Amino acid sequence: EKGGYDYFMLKEIAEQPKAVADTLLGRIDAEGRLRLDEVRIPDAVLREADKVVIIACGTAFHSGLIAKYAIEHWTRIPCEVELASEFRYRDPILGQRTLVIAISQSGETMDTLMALRHAREQGAKVLAICNTNGSTIPRESDAVLYTHAGPEVAVASTKAFLTQLVACYLVALYLGQVRGTKWGDEIHAVIRELARSADDVERVLETMEPVRALARSLAHKNTVLFLGRHVGYPVALEGALKLKELAYMHAEGFAAGELKHGPIALIEEDLPVVVVVPSPKGRSVLHDKIVSNIQEIRARGARTIVIAEEGDETVVPYADHLIRIPATPTLLQPLVSTVPLQVFACELATARGNEVDQPRNLAKSVTVE
Ligand code: M6R
User: Fold this and answer.
1) Domain SIS, which positions (predicted)?
2) Residues in CB range of 151: below 8 A, 6 or more apart
């Protein structure tokens, strides 16, 4: 049932191109416009929404953090993202024009379920993004957009995360399409790129051998840090979470701009630091800033592991290890930049002799608060 792989996680990492393609299937028409009729939230509701609130836990929360950048950029609707476990305990401001998006692979996470019940009691409309047909969260929501990752068995979420990203992009672009923002042309172009993204994920998977070798060489380390900016920041958080749960290592993700506000004090000789570099085009200001961050930490002894787009030569002199990803539109980069981090964590866990599919102390779905 592991299809020739040693672990379900390896199989699920490999299935990501198909999971991404399946989640897009039937949702983009021949003219390159989105069709989400199955979602069954009337367009009028989407047009009138004045706020989006995303609730989720763990890896699903990280997909929500990325969705915020996409939703605010393409729709200009303010978007908040909150850990489901914090949400209902702080009396959040919700109303009939609030669109709540609950993201969950299993559809059974108690924290997310309680948060969505609270939101509906306050009159908000809830859209679930979920991977499990007929599970509790979609049943209790007003509408659902299913991710088509297929069953995810490994405790560490991989293919479900990529499909959550796809679903979030679809919702963001659809909201933009329905509301007719000034980004019409860009939305159209991004839909075309999104339709091709499964191939990009495939290309990344084909180049992972050096990442595995690097992971094995770091098996004796105690700490790994992850840095990113913009959508690369939640990717850094996700890379750190994968490493904690699988390798049982101390790992932390930071927004690179925060370095000099504290975390740079952690940098010491030979400390591995993974840096997710934004696209050099379009967001060149951010790109230049992160290149200076890489120089700063390297000057203090860090061992830099740099994830950067193909063709980005500016990072080469400062990268002790360079991991290449295909060039994508800025907001879509997490679809490709996350994959090496999954492979990295999985290989480190194996090298440390850990049980990859069933990490200690964790359960696949967390049905208690
Ligand atoms: O089933 P859900 O998506 O609601 O689960 C949420 C988290 O428990 C889950 O993503 C968890 O963080 C994973 N083990 C991460 O790999």
Assistant:
1) 41-181, 214-359
2) none
CB 322 within 8 A of CB 293: no
Q: What is the pLDDT of residue 283?
A: 59
d(CA 66, CA 79): 11
- Please indicate whether residue 106 or residue 43 has the higher confidence score (pLDDT): 106
Tokens of 31: 């003219």
Contact 116, 69 (CB under 8 A): no
Residue in 51, 244, 289, 364 annotated catalytic: 364
232 Cβ neighbours under 8 A, 6+ residues apart: 256, 276, 277, 278, 290, 333, 334, 337
Ligand 1: does its nearest atom lie under 6 Å from the Cβ of 106?
A: yes
pLDDT at 282 over 70: no
Residue 336: C-alpha distances to residues 48, 115, 243, 310, 350 (Å): 33, 30, 18, 12, 23
Alpha-carbon distance 291 to 152, whole Å?
36
Q: Would residue 242 show up in a list of annotated catalytic residues for this protein?
A: no
Q: What is the 46 CA–ligand 1 centroid distance (Å)? A: 27
What pTM was estimated for this model as a whole?
Answer: 0.96
Structural tokens at position 247: 């390798």
295 lines ligand 1 (CB under 6 A): no
Looking at per-residue pLDDT, the higher value among 186 and 213 belongs to 213
Is residue 366 within 6 Å of ligand 1 at its C-beta? yes
Q: What are phi and psi of 29, to 5 degrees?
A: -90, 180
CA of 362 to the centre of ligand 1 (A): 10
How far does the centroid of ligand 1 lie from the alpha carbon of residue 338, in Å?
16
Query: Is 156 near ligand 1, meaning CB less than 6 Å away?
Result: yes
Looking at the CA of residue 366, tell me the nearest atom of ligand 1: 8
Q: How far is the CA of 252 from the centre of ligand 1 (A)?
A: 18
